[in-house]
Write a structure and sequence with these properties.
The chain is of the alpha/beta class and 265 residues long. It contains seven helices and five strands; from the N terminus they run βαβααβαβααβα. It has a domain of 175 residues: Rossmann fold, CATH 3.40.50.300. The protein has a five-stranded parallel β-sheet, with helices on both faces. It is globular and about 55 Å long.
């Protein structure tokens, strides 16, 4: 007998209307890829890894390299462990790249070597080789490479890695040369000139291959222009009679003096 006014049965808390077994509806699974025989992909997307996971390290932005504070005791300053940005200047055949690479590799703190020529040659199609004739394109690629090297140097220093750059900077083009490096890296950049004798430069240039090798006339012309660094106030290393290790030690001494009393340039 039906009783009017009776209340309908109250569903159990673990039941869901429309589902006789009391289970809530499950989200639809995305279709499996063709040929996939494994379990279906999870419905929710994976969460990004934590910030400390490799590949997601937050790096501090690279700012201009500042002039270091003079050491209280210059004699106790160890240039081999100082965080520095060095610009090694010299003509083709002076040994800049060899010395810079060796100096960076022997230091007791992380140090990077940034070669301007290597960065210039990142351009493959459309590379403007100055030996084919200096023009607006080769000039633009040189400036672009210097700016790229400057960005790299600033980022390395911001992340506690010293660096040494090498470039053939001429004293008679201060705005493009040292001025450009100062703008790109910062006032704390330490410029050092590597200038052996002409006969040594000619011998080393003769051992080069490819577009790194210049004519004797071009080498002599560049070396003559580099002589203008004498009297500029920048430290100069004549490595005519020194091997690479000795030259690297001399560079340590120059950097230590520059840290204790930054040169004016």
């Amino acid at each position: 007998m039906q009783h009017h006014g009776a209340q309908p049965p109250v569903p159990r808390p673990d039941s869901v209307q429309g589902h006789p077994h009391g289970h809530p509806p499950q989200p639809a699974q995305p279709p499996a890829a063709p040929g996939w025989t494994g379990p279906a992909a999870p419905a929710s997307l994976p969460q990004p890894p934590a910030a400390e996971t490799t590949g997601h390290i937050q790096l501090p932005p690279g700012g201009p390299v500042q002039i270091p504070s003079p050491a209280a005791d210059p004699a106790s300053l160890d240039a081999a462990q100082a965080a520095v940005a060095v610009l090694l200047i010299g003509p083709a055949g002076a040994g800049k790249t060899t010395v810079a690479r060796h100096w960076a590799g022997r230091r007791r703190v992380p140090t990077a070597h940034i070669s301007l020529d290597d960065v210039r040659e990142w351009v493959r199609s459309g590379f403007a080789d100055p030996q084919s004739g200096w023009n607006d394109h080769s000039e633009a690629q040189y400036r672009l490479a210097r700016r790229t090297c400057g960005f790299a140097a600033r980022n390395f220093l911001a992340n506690h890695i010293s660096c040494i750059l090498d470039d053939a900077v001429f004293p008679d083009r201060p705005v493009v040369g040292l001025g450009g490096w100062k703008r790109h890296v910062g006032p704390g950049l330490i410029p050092v000139v590597l200038l052996p004798g002409l006969e040594i430069v000619l011998e080393r240039n003769a051992e080069r291959t490819g577009n790194r090798r210049l004519t004797d006339e071009e080498v002599a012309r560049i070396h003559g222009r580099m002589a203008g660094w004498y009297g500029s106030g920048l430290p100069i290393i004549d490595n005519s009679r020194h091997d690479v290790e000795t030259t690297a030690r001399m560079l340590d001494e120059v950097v230590a003096r520059s840290l204790a009393s930054p040169p004016s340039w």
